[in-house]
Design a protein that fits this description.
alpha+beta, binds adenosine-5'-diphosphate
Length: 139
């Protein structure tokens, strides 16, 4: 996948609260093009695989339970400098530390239930996009 793409998930509590449209609006207003989008739900095993990098962290079990507890919106986004610019748009992991104008400042509930995921590197953006989407959904 090109380095001008990133991957996001709108997390279960934000989907449940009906924030998906508002969050997608913030994303497009910030200049990202939506390349691919779907509503789906992770199984516990899939959430465990997706967050495997955190498997030694104390919050891993809680994170896997939460991320598989309800539907999410998965999306691939395109923009110059997509990974870094999207990390800026989502804001700090802990919403109490997130800057004004960020998705987490506006919609996150807590450090765990923090509204949106954003890939942390081009390599992970590609891996994560391919986890959710087939090649022909990523044109
Ligand atoms: P980010 O999503 O900002 O890149 P991390 O990669 O550090 O953050 O963590 C991945 C996800 O794990 C976070 O988005 C959040 O949902 C959850 N998480 C991180 N730290 C904690 C914590 N201390 N307690 C509960 N959940 C956490």
């Amino acid at each position: 996948m090109a380095t001008n793409r990133t991957f996001t998930m709108i997390k279960p509590e934000a989907v449940e609260k009906g924030f998906s449209g508002k969050i997608l609006d913030m994303i497009t207003e910030a200049g990202f093009k939506i390349v691919a989008l779907k509503k789906t739900q992770l199984s516990k095993a899939e959430a465990g695989t997706f967050y495997e990098v955190h498997s030694e962290r104390p919050f891993y079990g809680e994170l896997v339970d939460y991320m598989s507890a309800g539907p999410i919106m998965a999306a691939v986004l395109e923009k110059d400098n997509a990974v870094a610019d999207f990390r800026t748009l989502i804001g700090a992991t802990d919403p109490s530390e997130a800057a004004e104008g960020t998705i987490r400042k506006a919609y996150a509930e807590s450090k765990g239930k923090n509204a949106a995921h954003g890939s942390d590197s081009d390599e992970n953006a590609s891996i994560e996009a391919n986890f959710f989407f087939t090649g022909r959904e990523l044109i």
